[in-house]
Amino acid sequence: MPRPLLKVNEIFYSLQGEGPNTGMAAVFLRLAGCSMNCPFCDTKYAAAQGQEMTDGDIVSALEQYPCRNVIITGGEPTEQDFAPLARTLKQRGWTVHMESNGAQDADVSDIDFLVVSPKKHVHENMLKKAHAIKIVVGQETDLTEIEKYFPYANAHTAVCLQPESNKQENIDLCVKLIKQHPFLRLSLQTHKLANIR
Ligand code: SF4
């Protein structure tokens, strides 16, 4: 049976705004669909809207830009069969990044840089495979709950606290936590500060 086409919400060229690769030029491939339905989700528009595309059409759309970093994001990319496309992109010389909620243990063997941002539940294998774990922190965050991610911080994996919606009170809370646990890092949504996508 042929593999289903990938449902794509949007493809655009910008800079990585968050996490350890902040400031890196990249083409974003936003896949449609996410079953998590987080209340603070800032890409709710990607939950349903999408256009089915072949891998070839996606590669052509990506390769119109003068950059060979791709960030596969969503929605939640692991809810679709992204792995064959990731392999094709790697074979064509792309550096392949992916952002995932880590809820399911996906084949990320062709992902060069995996960022997992845990939400209601996360698969432990994805935490182990992540190059960065990005934890959204707001005033309602259960701080004892997020501490369970701290032991994953090591030379391979950066554990970043990201203030929800760039709110000052959330930034203050993250800074305080990072000073208490200096192996953590701050991740600001710099694309919002820079007023870019
Ligand atoms: S997991 Fe991410 S994409 Fe999915 S609803 Fe939550 S914030 Fe949005």
Word description of this protein:
This protein is an alpha/beta fold and 197 residues long. The chain has a single domain, classed as Aldolase class I (TIM Barrel, Alpha-Beta Barrel). It has six helices and nine strands. A nine-stranded mixed β-sheet has the order 3-1-2-4-5-6-7-8-9. The longest helix has 13 residues, at 168-180. The mean pLDDT is 96. The structure holds iron/sulfur cluster. Residues 34, 36-38, 41, 43, 74-76, 101, 119 line the site of iron/sulfur cluster (SF4).
Summarize the SSE layout with pairings.
Layout: E1 6-15, E2 25-31, E3 51-53, H1 55-62, E4 69-73, H2 83-91, E5 95-100, E6 113-116, H3 124-129, E7 132-137, H4 143-146, E8 158-163, H5 168-180, E9 185-186, H6 190-193
Parallel strand pairs: 2-4, 4-5, 5-6, 6-7, 7-8, 8-9
Antiparallel strand pairs: 1-2, 1-3
Bound molecules: iron/sulfur cluster.
Residues 34, 36-38, 41, 43, 74-76, 101, 119 line the site of iron/sulfur cluster.
Q: What is the gyration radius calculated from CA atoms?
A: 16 Å
What are the secondary-structure elements, in order, as H or E?
EEEHEHEEHEHEHEH
Helix content: 10-25%
Strand runs, count: 9
CATH fold category name: TIM Barrel
Supply the CATH architecture: Alpha-Beta Barrel
Ligands bound, unique? iron/sulfur cluster
What top-tier CATH class fits best?
A: Alpha Beta
Number of helical stretches of at least 4 residues: 6
| Strand numbers in spatial order across the main sheet | 3-1-2-4-5-6-7-8-9
Tell me the count of domains: 1
Which residues form runs of ≥5 with pLDDT under 50?
Answer: none
